[in-house]
Amino acid sequence: MCAQLLHATPAMPHVLMHAGQHGCPYGTHRVLQPAGVLPQPAWRIDNTMATYDNEILIDVQALNVDAASFTQIKLASQGDPDRIAATILDIVAQRGKLHNPVTGSGGMLIGRVAAIGAALAGRIDLAVGDRIATMVSLSLTPLHIERIHHVHLAQDQVDISGQAILFESGLYAKLPDDIPEKVALAILDVAGAPAQTARLVQPGDTVVVVGGGGKSGTLCVYEARKRAGPDGCVIGISPFEKDCERMRELGWVDHALRVDATDAVAMAQAVSTATQGRLADVLINCVNLPHTEMGSILATRDRGRIYFFSMATSFTAASLGAEGVGKDVDMLMGNGHAKGNADYALSLLRESASLRHLFETLYV
């Protein structure tokens, strides 16, 4: 815990306006280094909280750090909350955003709208004071942290005081009144996963969810069960027995396999045994550690589909690895956005009492 412990720079003025200045809808006016790129791949962006007339200023309450990023920071910090907080502050100080230089990923945030640029007035369904979650990555969001109050080790979440900028093109979701904020934050951070699962899975499919005991994996298992139906087969994979026990208790998987997905041959053999050699029609990879590409590829049948939702995925390892073992599979790299994904992900909690109880137990 690092309550009241770590400060960034002194608090900046609450609202400053670049009067009459109109920024690029995609935020290129904030890029400091290198020139000519968009904010996400940029090494450094301007995180002064003086807003252009087409930006939204947010008073930030909490960050939900991308699972791959948080795991990397936690391991490098040996699980020490103060060192984790110091690392987060250092990244933001260097880059103007929470863009992990090791994993390349960020996360998302929740907060309240503090100001809306004049050029956006009447064009968006937001008002000052609205509670929102940003649906774009912290790896491209100008962020200023005044203080880190608490690091939640088990939830990948960090309570802060600070501010952030949302560009004109930035996606957001209003926080619902019927779901606790921390639960909504956790769900919205991975809202693309169940939405993409709904698109990919067909009735009767054999679906494998790697990391099926985690946050995004649980949502994907639930969605896969709905879509595959009674004639389908849903398999959850985790190296941890507690995750496998939870998957069995929830009742949405036909098999919960305890296997390390970084051991490609062992994973392929486990899935082959469970499916009598059929392998996966659809495989969803939600793990937060690297080197699971080949296990996913070997566990999927020829002409099957793989959705790499994890930000720990290496495109090079997946592409060249599939070629190297002669696997003709369709691979979709995780796009965290799917139209309507925020509302859809939240609706899953409303339709399943078991799913809601689980997330409220973990995140409230």
Structure commentary:
The structure is a single chain. The protein has 364 residues and is of the alpha/beta class. The protein has 2 domains: 6-189, no CATH class; 192-340 and 349-363, Rossmann fold. Helices cover 32% and strands 25% of the residues. The chain is built from 11 helices and 17 strands. The protein has helices at 67-76, 81-95, 181-189, 192-200, 215-228, 241-250, 264-274, 293-298, 315-324, 341-351, 353-363; strands spanning 6-7, 16-17, 31-33, 44-45, 50-51, 56-65, 107-116, 131-134, 143-152, 157-166, 172-174, 206-210, 233-238, 255-258, 280-285, 300-308, 330-333. It has a 7-stranded antiparallel beta sheet with strand order 1-9-10-6-7-8-11. Strands 14-13-12-15-16-17 form a 6-stranded parallel beta sheet, with helices on both faces. Strands 2-5 form a two-stranded parallel sheet. Strand 13 (233-238), helix 6 (241-250) and strand 14 (255-258) form a beta-alpha-beta unit. The two termini are 17 Å apart. Mean pLDDT is 93; it is low at 1-5 and 9-16.
Portion in helices: 25-40%
Provide the domain count. Answer: 2
Helix segment count?
11
Instruction: Work out the strand percent.
Output: 25-35%
Low-confidence stretches: 1-5, 9-16
Sheet with the most strands?
7 strands, antiparallel
Q: What is the β-strand count?
A: 17
Strand order of the largest sheet: 1-9-10-6-7-8-11
Q: Structural class of the secondary elements?
A: alpha/beta
**SSE topology string:** EEEEEEHHEEEEEHHEHEHEHEHEHEHH
Shape descriptor reads: globular
Distance between the termini: 17 Å
Radius of gyration: 21 Å
pLDDT average, as an integer? 93
